[in-house]
């Protein structure tokens, strides 16, 4: 299964890992911004500032999980089938939360009543927090292993997925994304809301360090192998560097280090998993590896050439989008937009 010297199942294992890394880094700060509405949104203008920081990019960020799922389905159909059947309820809850969040972004401004906006703001907060935690629970279970039968079917229950280790994984992603989002707010805003976001990132960051360190150490001692420890060390150092940069007000540096921390933490989990893709906790013989879960050599070859052509184009487009919408957003921005809209409506009359 070689293409120009590459073992294709291994190559696609790491491509899937890269896609999930992209998703967690990008949609991670989306989730974080959504969760900060409760802490930074003192009035409707504040909340609109927060939502507008991710308004142009949140839906583009979510496409990464679609691409990751499609790549998983095509490259490792056995892994996809076991994962989506065994984790069906958890993944369904994530999907419903993402739908609720997306609908809320579009509907909260459709009516002027405060109660109407408050309901959709609550949906944004919940729709951000639930996936942020459940993704961590899911990946912790993948690394830890779940009970599988000889045909690779999950034979546990939903509550079997809520082990202490898995819940710690969920709390880790929840706090990482929350802090990531708060740092992103400091990068995209100015004035008082930026200062409050900086203080919030410092407070949540202190909790994140403790929780993430506990999870990485537990993972390392129980499942760590290969490149796990070097990647985990980079993740830990980057998280500390991000928080120190935030304290100095260097939001660009802080955000970069937060992205590196999340990326290397996810890479460390995949390193701990490799060469398995779905270990069986009850009988190692029932587990899935990159070899017995992979598609045919022809399928992986076609996918490799397709990825080589289109992935750079997707990255270029996303980079261009972030460049276009790089400007900071302030309360004045929102208030001026309201005045312009009112003037336009008056002229139309």
Explain this structure to me?
The protein is 77% helix and 3% strand. It has one domain: Formate dehydrogenase/DMSO reductase fold (Up-down Bundle), CATH 1.20.1630. The longest helix is centred in the first third of the chain and has 33 residues, at 8-40. The protein is mainly α and 349 residues long. It is globular and about 60 Å long. The strands form 2 sheets. A two-stranded antiparallel sheet has the order 1-2. A hairpin with a 2-residue loop joins β1 (2-3) and β2. It is a multi-pass membrane protein.
How many separate structural domains? 1
Instruction: Tell me the total number of β-strands.
Output: 4
Share of helix among residues? over 70%
Poorly predicted regions are none
> Which CATH class?
Mainly Alpha
Radius of gyration: 21 Å
Distance between the termini: 68 Å
In the CATH hierarchy, what is the architecture at level 2?
A: Up-down Bundle
Widest sheet, order of strands: 1-2
Task: Summarize the SSE layout with pairings.
Blueprint lengths: L1 E2 L2 E2 H33 L3 H11 L3 H18 L1 H10 L1 H20 L6 H31 L19 H25 L3 H32 L4 H20 L3 H23 L2 E3 L9 E2 L7 H28 L6 H18 L1
Antiparallel strand pairs: 1-2, 3-4
Features:
349 residues; two-stranded antiparallel ribbon; mainly alpha; Formate dehydrogenase/DMSO reductase fold; 12 helices; 4 strands
Task: Please outline what is shown here.
With 349 residues, the chain is an all-alpha fold.
